[in-house]
Amino acid sequence: MNDVISVAAIQMNCILGNKEENLSKSERLIEDAVKKGAKLIVLPELFNTGYRVEENDLDLAEQIPGETTSWLERICSENNVYIVGCILEKSITNGVIYDTAIVVGPKGLIGSYRKIHLWDKENIRFAKGNEYPIFDLGFARLGVQICYEIGFPEGARILSLKGADIVVYPSAFGKERLYVWDIATRSRALENGIYVIACNRTGKERGKTEFGGFSRIVDPKGKIIVEASSEDEVILAEVNLNDVKNQRREVPYLRDLNQCVIKENLIF
């Protein structure tokens, strides 16, 4: 396993409901990330459709594998990279849709993650996922959460205990709550000793839903390595997975966690 790898987050605005244009823009930005040496690339939440497409969810949703999965497979194969992208997933149950992240590598689809904790009216749009998978990329063990889930420490903790070195957050996080984004992105990294790749949207949809940007890559100490500042931007950082194990020895939250006591006192 190579301990040092280059990772990238693609911050971008999207054209509402226009898959062709969004995929074209995404590919240009991915090419930029590849030229800069990125091995793992993260795209924002619902990057291929835009976020506020609720009336057209059923028409825009895809099965996995499907159109966008195949598009990602082609890019990953051609460039020998790994990409995480989040799309509307059409369930095999007619009429049911998930907000789903797909993980793709040079050899094809690796797996997917369905958003578990839904934000506000997403509870009307989407069904909830119920699993926290780990994706072994060979060079790193990857966990995925989506947007609003940055504020749920349980998800990142579960993924870390299951072996994640890096947790990524494809997001369409609102500008109004950037104070949450700022604290939570660093907290999830620090409390688990992980790298966090928090990839956010920019732009405004329907004249009122404004996305916050400030995509960032955070190290296991909670330090921001790099942060985006433009509408369409690629940020890139080298991450050293030795820093994960070193930080977990320096501040041993995962070692000292008494899981038995937590399980006994959970109330749902």
TrEMBL record:
InterPro entries: C-N_Hydrolase, C-N_Hydrolase_sf
UniProt cross-references to Pfam families, sorted A to Z: CN_hydrolase
Superkingdom, natural source: Bacteria
CDD domains: nitrilase (cd07197)
Ranges of residues in domain CN hydrolase: 5-241
PANTHER family: DEAMINATED GLUTATHIONE AMIDASE, NITRILASE-RELATED
Family of this protein: Belongs to the carbon-nitrogen hydrolase superfamily. NIT1/NIT2 family.
Protein known as: CN hydrolase domain-containing protein
Organism of this sequence: Saccharococcus caldoxylosilyticus
Organism phylogeny: Bacteria, Bacillati, Bacillota, Bacilli, Bacillales
